[in-house]
Amino acid sequence: MRVERELMRGAGPVAVLKLLERGAMYGYELVEALDRHSDGVLAMGQSTLYPMLYNLEAQGFVKADWRDGDSGRQRKYYALTALGKRRLANETKQWEALSRAMAAMGILPEGAGA
Amino acid sequence: MNDAALPAMPVPSDSLWSRLRTTPLRDALRGQLTGSLDVRRMIAAANLPEPIPSLIYVTIRRARLWRSARLEVARELIARFRANLDAGRAPEDVVKMFGDPTRVARSIRKEKLLRPAIARVELPQPLQELVYEVARRTRLWRSERVDVARELANHFRDGTDAGRTPEQLIKSFGNRREAAQLIRRAKLRSRPFVWRVWRRTWQAVGLLILLVLLTYIVLLIRLKTAHPTISRNYGLEMNAPARAVPEDDRAWPLYREAVLRLTAEPNFAAMSDRELSEDEVNFSVAAEKPTGKHWDMVVIWLDQNREALEFVRKASGRPRMGFVYGDPADRVWYDKLKLNPKVMDLERNELVAGLLLDHINEFHYLQNLLAADAHRAAALNDGATFIRDVETAVRMAGQIRDDMPFLVTEGVSFGLFSESLSLVDDLLMGRHELVDDAGLQRLAHSIAGYSGGGTIRARLLGQRLTFRDLYQRVYTDDGRGDGRLTAEGLRLLNNVKALSAGDADSAVAPVFSALIASRREMTRATDELFDRLENEINQPYWERSSSTVRDQIARWDRSPVDKIRYAPLRQMSSFAQYTAPLGDFITQRRDATLVALALELYHRRNGSWPKVLGELVPDLLPAVPPDRFTGGPLLYRVVEDRPLLYSAGPDKKDDGGKPIEGPALARLNPMFFMTMATAETKILTGDWILWPPPMTAKLDE
Predict the structure, then answer these.
(1) What is the pTM assigned to this prediction?
(2) Which residue(s) pair with B21 in the sheet?
(3) Interface ipTM
(4) What backbone torsions phi and psi does residue B320 show, to the nearest 5 degrees?
(5) How close are the terminal C-alpha atoms of chain B, in Å?
(6) What percent of chain B has a predicted confidence (pLDDT) above 70?
(7) What's B280-342 look like in SS3?
(8) Count of beta carbons in the 10 Å neighbourhood of residue B191
(9) Quick one: pLDDT at residue A112?
(10) List of chain A residues whose C-beta atoms are within 8 Å of the C-beta of residue B179
(11) Which of residues 56-75 of B touch A (CB under 8 A)?
């Protein structure tokens, strides 16, 4: 199932920040991880991912640098900054509150926001 | 490579300025001067053995990259050198392996170009084209485009390496145009703060220019599509008072007959081509006295114009002037003046300010005729004719004010009356025995009766209506007394010199049209100025401290907006300046002559001059007239057995009859002089001598 564009605009950056919490990742890795972890719900093409990454970079939530990959090719790796970590923590709280509210409204199953 | 040719990397400065210059704004705002954008600092911090730091530095400099790219390349070079050193290679070997820094720099710069950067990733052609197209469409800086292209290309390469087909990858990419736009937007946010401020500034400037341009176009259309509606014929309305005078009561038809019969005044310049003597140049029939060198010419001219003189005398006996503009009976007079009858046709409803008042000029010639005849009467000891001529001149001057009062008619009337007073002054000064007591009293009654007596005041109704007429030709008419400026109106304002800024077709005209007051506001401001001016005129001169009209205009002049808003009214400043004291001047002049006549009568009765002017009241004067400068009684003293009449003058102090020092104009007419004077002019000291008349002063002094 694909989520609406507006919803994706809110959920996508948090999902990316969450993935980067584990360590630096490059674009393709992120696409794959998003697809895999969300069962395709948060899957996004490059046309969505890269502008999002550049925005996060412009806001100082992630930093990017070119590194040599295993294949010998260079890849641009994105890593979470301290500011990004704070943002992720904040966004997580908001999503939890939202989930609880949605559960209370009966939109999400009981305990979804717990 | 030659190490000797390699310049050493300058030691990174640790100065505050250097750190400030190389610290990202974000860090600086947090109070941390990290200097993290300083390439030299980054290279030095790597602690690589010489000459590697210098080699990196020179290579980066020669690559001529943007600062962000320089940092990125420096980071990469440091990593590569370190990897080689860690692998046990000697620094010299590593440097040798690196090669010529200029060549490497060129290669780095080239690598930063788009196509090679994409090609290096070795993608299938369709994917290369997609990356190229998206990167190109971002319209970012070259280094940014290369960076985006490299990243996208590597992403696709990861995809193909994972077994996905180019078609699948292209399909999953999404909309290229949209992606390029989003990437551009995001990348622009990453650009330096200063650049973003600069961009926003230019965007704001551009928007402002666009707004100004649009506003200008709207104003231009507004101006060009606006047309005045001329609904009233002020010319006909102004003509109504004269038209209402019964034909038998009208003086003008008789004056017209006099004018038509009047021959040209003798004029040496017109009669001869030779060089004229001073007295010939200055000759005029009105000024030439019977003792003058050219008096015989005056006598001949007078004899030629006996009939004209009779018409003037008869005309002055008529109740009112009654000059009807455009009267068909005036055709013969138009022919004499070569006036186009169409110009005189008020039905054409032409601009009132452009109407010709040529009949006013004719009275100067008729006054000259009367003055010359009065001089001849004096020479012939014919007191009765002298008195008759003065009475005629005074009545004629008064009749000029009968029809619609314009400033020009008021001014001419006052001027001719003043010339009549001069005839009486001349009589009292040199030939007082010519006229008996009764004659002097007749002269006094005639003079006192000018324009009904009392304080003489200039009237402005004609001028008011002239402005109203102007506005109906300048503005549109919304039917409720309001309207906006028209192109024709702007042209007209320029033509009548009501404006000095630009013409109707100039580029500033639309802007001007937006700033100038609306019809209603302009009419209100005009009426207010005229009200103020009339209040000033009605106020005694001694109670006026400053001109509220001029103060108001000066206030407008101090505001750049009001200066344009009320531009057509700025000419009212000089108009008010010389209009306000006109009546005071002629009143003072008249009063002085009336007192002089009373003094002469007193002297005849008593054989001496009165000690104070109060002695003339009530037998010879109804009251001692006021000094127009102080409001107190006119000043008087007897000096060397001759009476001296004077006003305290602008300094309002009795200086014992000491004349004003200064230009001749100031001595003859300090009121008028003060209106002409600028704010910097010092207050005139001394007294304004009214009697005996200051004949010695020459206006060309």
Answers:
(1) 0.69
(2) none
(3) 0.89
(4) -140, 160
(5) 95
(6) 95
(7) HHCCCCCCCCCCCCCHHHHHHHHHHCHHHHHHHHHHHCCCECCCCCCCHHHHHHHHHHCCCCC
(8) 16
(9) 59
(10) 46-48, 50-51
(11) 72, 75
